[in-house]
Amino acid sequence: MKFIIVLCLFFQGLSLTAYAQAYKYHTVAPEENVFRIAQKYGISTEAIYKYNPDARNGVNVGSKLVIPIQDETGNAPGTPAAPQAVTFIDHKVQRQETIYRLSKQYEVSEEDIKRYNKQLYSKELQLGETIKIPVFSKSAVRETRTTPAQPSRPVQITNTREHIILPKETKYGIARKYGMTVNELESLNPTVDVLQPGIMLKVGTNVLDEPVIITGDDFQFYEVQPQETLFGLTQRFQVSQDSLIALNPALKDGLKFGMVLKVPTKDARGRELEDIEIPVAESFEKRSADLSNSLKDFSTKNLVLMLPFNTSKVNKDTISNSRGVLQNDRVMRISLDFYSGVLMALETAKEMGISTNLKVYDTQQQPGTVSSIIQNNNFNNVHAVIGPLFQATSEEAASRLLNQNIPVISPISNRELRGMPNLYQARPSDEMLTDAMINYLRDNSQGKNIIIIADSKNSAVKSKLMNALPNARLVNPAGNNVSSGAISPSLMSDRENWIILESESVALLGSATSAMYRLARGNRIKLFTTNKNSSYDSDIIVNEHLGRLEFHYPSEYKEFDETVTDRFIDTYKSKYGVVPNNYTVRGYDLTLDVLLRLGAMSTLERSVKENIETEYVENKFLYRPKQNGGFSNNAVYIMKLNNDLTLSVAN
């Protein structure tokens, strides 16, 4: 039944764009008209008419209009920077309560309430829900009360001059030269997307006393992000505070969000900053752990989802036909599972204030179909493409969208993909899993007795293990068998014995784990592998033996704990009546990660440069540049099977 429901949702998605514009409500006040309301929010009258068609005939006092949110902060454009809350009051919404009444009751503005409850940008208060009411310091409250209320109007640079773009100039350099932020420069020049020498720009008149700024080999420009500190920037760019202030005299007046700074591309030893590990400030580490706390770009995100639904096989008028196809088409089931997770992620992101315009295409598992989809549809302004599922179709999509620099995220392929700068591999490769396990063993094996058991088909990984663990002992299997007598001489009774088992042979794995289980009665033994392959799922392998040996293995995901309450899991079970599988959870985690990265950093590429690692229900993401081009997810879990057969992440 779940698949039939998701299939129906998919067919709706093909015919209708899943559009969910972020918006706020405006109650029409006396003497207001559409023109004045548009001016107040810094938008066009057509934008109001788009969401309120009846407004063309005039508006009445007290009526509500839907206002699209365009400011990155989620506030109405031109709203002054709000004070930061000191603490919060949890308020349970009662019958007939409104945001306006709560703002009067707690003496805070309506925008302050929405700022800390982002779901209220896209929906009204719900009876029984609990929201956070911010409590500000007395000085902030006093400032708010003594400042006369002024109509909100767009922040504008009224005095402008013209600037002709020179070769190699960037938006950062031009903004810095004229004492502007990049956002201010872009708002003055909305039609200029890519800088070309000779183009004339509108700029401010506050020209800094320095020559035209052009990036070179020694310096680059950096736009200050929210919550960053001067100390954090000195750590990030490996430069002293005095040197950073010397390069940027405006820092003497304090660090401000949106400032464009001139920073070195090399550290004090002359090394390229991209080639060394940059210590990250504590505040940045906290921000990177949960991007939902760092959202600043609440513009609607345009996503494209490409999956092999194989809808040509389905007769939409016959449920029995659909069920039969679903039973026989594993790829279709995977696609529908993944799609159901994507839909849940869109709902979660919307509650955080990020709305999504989603377009869904059926790739039919054919690169030619992917090419045709891209050729016959408009991909302008697409922020990211999720899918297709498999190597050939993912590479085709990335190749076709390369000129537009649209990110393509391959969700489940673990094969080595072609190097293209817009191709992101979201599932760690088998080689990454192996390397992560070897690194774990090397970093944690001090004082342990290491034993390696590997058959002839795994000689390559055995060599890697020996290089990383030169003191390890070797036990060679006798064909497809390893006996207790073969392992026993290599064990040590005065320390923990870590045995690394490398094989895909069910017979070898069965004999080895049984022998270790018997030997563990008188010895401390733990079992490890770099490759938990499908042979471990055989009935010949006894799970109780693996649990007793605290079996460790690398994995791209962790299985969620059903005993722990999780909102996504509970919502999914309530909606579909089943527990989501790992493809569904991956669709949810991956899509939510993409949306939050766009909401926090505006582009996926910037989030990669910031070295951000994120974690959700079962998956975590840490994208790193690949040597041959593109990016791969290097986040790997080391999982441990406990004695009670539960799974946990190894310390």
Automatic annotation (TrEMBL):
CDD domains: LysM (cd00118), PBP1_ABC_transporter_LIVBP-like (cd06268). It comes from the Bacteria. The keyword Signal applies. The keyword ATP-binding does not apply. PROSITE patterns: LYSM (PS51782). SUPFAM superfamilies: LysM domain (SSF54106), Periplasmic binding protein-like I (SSF53822). This is LysM peptidoglycan-binding domain-containing protein.
